[in-house]
Specification:
about 250 residues; Rossmann fold; about 25% helix; binds hypoxanthine
């Protein structure tokens, strides 16, 4: 059984150094995951990898089947998840290329399948979401970054927007007033579903751009892609350091 999963976001559709042993297509009661689960070893540790947007990066954030993805990982025996998410920086310190381990989240998404507790219930179920992320996994990521000399912001509030369009400057002002430090489109419902399935789940957010109205001009998608491809080397180093300690 493999108990650790890595979910790759935009810019991370594969793990370069993963020695792949097998792939498994899992059909779930919630439909199809974004792709086959990829099993293998990374730095001598067995892990399973899943590309959130599909291996060809074809599934937009609002169409990702988050329920199927996490259910498939549970089915495979996973109990711990490190998820990589691209974000726009709202806090002035979050410049393109920065890494953040968020500790809080605000959900602005709508009409996504966001719970496993919806029908055929013996009892109405409310999960506690005071701490949306697993403290143990956050510490592993933060301490691993420190050991590997990789700068990371050790806290921050993630604002999860619906997408696929980017935000208006006024929407970013509102998110900032709400206390968001970063904005991304995939943080929810993934974090809540992970909590429902009792995963130890944390996010490594990669700042791809300054959020709308916070940079010099309009957001340039080519620059986002270029920043993400430059930053992924550091993300992979962090993952490699972290997996030995979780
Ligand atoms: N907004 C929302 N999602 C994002 C952004 C952004 O500016 N950058 C990367 N993902």
């Amino acid at each position: 059984m493999v108990d650790l999963a890595i979910i790759g976001g935009t810019g991370l559709t594969s793990l370069k150094d993963l020695k792949i042993s097998r792939r498994e297509v899992v059909h779930t009661p919630y439909g199809e995951p974004s792709g086959a689960l990829t099993f293998g070893s990374l730095c001598d540790r067995e892990v399973v990898f899943l590309a959130r947007h599909g291996y060809g990066h074809t599934i937009p954030p609002h169409m990702v089947n988050y329920r199927a993805n996490l259910w498939a990982l549970k089915y495979a025996g996973v109990s711990r998840v490190i998820a990589v998410c691209a974000v726009g920086g709202i806090h002035p310190d979050l410049l393109p290329g920065s890494l953040v381990i968020p500790d809080q989240i605000i959900d602005y998404t709508w009409s996504r399948e966001h719970t496993y507790f919806e029908k055929d219930l013996a009892q109405v179920t409310h999960i506690d979401f005071t701490e949306p992320y697993c403290g143990k996994m956050r510490s592993v990521l933060i301490e691993s970054a420190q050991r590997a000399n990789i700068p990371v912001a050790t806290e921050g509030t993630y604002g999860a927007t619906q997408g696929p369009r980017l935000e208006s400057a006024a929407e970013i002002n509102r998110l900032e007033r709400d206390g968001c430090d970063m904005v991304g489109m995939t943080g929810m419902p993934e974090a809540a579903l992970a909590k429902e399935l009792e995963f130890c789940y944390a996010v490594c957010a990669v700042c791809a751009n300054r959020a709308a109205g916070r940079g010099a001009g309009p957001i340039d998608i080519r620059e986002i892609k270029a920043t993400l491809s430059r930053s992924m080397a550091q993300v992979c180093l962090l993952l490699e350091e972290a997996i030995g300690h979780c």
